[in-house]
Design brief:
It comes from Brassica cretica. This protein is mainly alpha-helical and 239 residues long. Helix content is 52%, strand content 8%. Among the domains are: 80 residues, no CATH class; 53 residues, no CATH class. The longest helix has 25 residues. The structure holds S-adenosylmethionine. The site of S-adenosylmethionine (SAM) has 13 residues, from helix 11 and helix 12.
């Protein structure tokens, strides 16, 4: 049987290019599976579960499935941590959480997460929006308005659950970015009053005024958003 070493180089290169192109097209065609599997993993708490096992934990898919479907007693957890195999003698594929997974954990503290932003962009409301992208060209309307009959910030006034999702997605993703900015940016040192236009729940403004207490913060946002914003020392809410 002929192999590529016996073929003219150009023929081999064309075949390789076609293979690569077909693989690329297949990836594009099936790409949606990746965020959907990722979403299911987040909803099941897979990353939180692996993280809870401590650094360096490696788990098989059945161990992860067991843990996320019924929380295990501590003794069983120790078994996983020591890396003991099952008794079948079969090679098991095992999984650990990559460092990037830490950005999707629900720690329940103020460290920020990208989980809520991911869930927002992959929510039913946003799927309907993605499905209307062509309307931007065909109707000259933004995709959200085509899908839902009104702009996003009007819609959140009608759907409380979605509003909570939006506000948390904004605040929790901005927290990660703002904390990094505050590590290097010195431009707030001489500021006395800072107005955050569209400041949402006020999380970002609070990060700034906590580091620079001389700043009087003004969070300017929609009434319905401010209604759910916690009060922070040194910050006033204005709509
Ligand atoms: C992308 S979000 C950013 C929120 C916030 N800065 C953060 O990083 O978490 C945009 C914000 O603009 C607010 N917004 C939209 N239209 C507004 C308007 N007409 N007047 C005031 N705020 C508005 C929204 O309510 C929302 O909180």
């Amino acid at each position: 049987m002929a192999n590529h070493l016996q073929e003219p180089l150009t023929t081999y290169c064309i075949q390789r290019d076609e293979e690569m192109m077909t693989m690329q097209a297949l990836k594009i065609a099936t790409n949606l599976a990746i965020p959907m599997v990722f979403k299911a993993a987040l909803e099941l708490g897979v990353f939180d579960t692996i993280a809870a096992m401590g650094n360096g934990a490696w788990l098989s898919s059945s161990e992860i499935a067991d843990l996320v479907s019924k929380p295990s007693p501590p003794t069983q957890r120790r078994l996983f941590e020591t890396g003991e195999n099952d008794l079948t003698g079969k090679t098991r594929r095992i999984y650990a959480a990559e460092p990037v997974c830490t950005l999707f954990l629900t720690r329940g503290d103020d460290s920020g997460t990208l989980m809520s932003l991911f869930m927002l962009l992959n929510s039913q409301v946003f799927f309907k929006t993605w499905d209307n992208l062509k309307g931007v060209i065909q109707e000259g309307k933004d995709a959200f308005s085509s899908a839902h009959g009104m702009p996003l910030f009007e819609y959140i006034g009608l759907d409380e659950q979605f509003a909570v999702m939006v506000n948390h997605a904004m605040a929790e993703s901005s927290t990660i970015i703002m904390k990094k900015i505050l590590e290097v940016y010195r431009g707030f040192e001489d500021v006395n009053t800072l107005v955050d236009i569209g400041g949402g729940l006020g999380t970002v403004l609070n990060l700034v005024t906590s580091k620079y207490p001389q700043i009087k913060g003004i969070n300017f946002d929609l009434t319905m958003v401010l209604a759910n914003a916690p009060s922070y020392a040194g910050t006033v809410l204005v709509d």
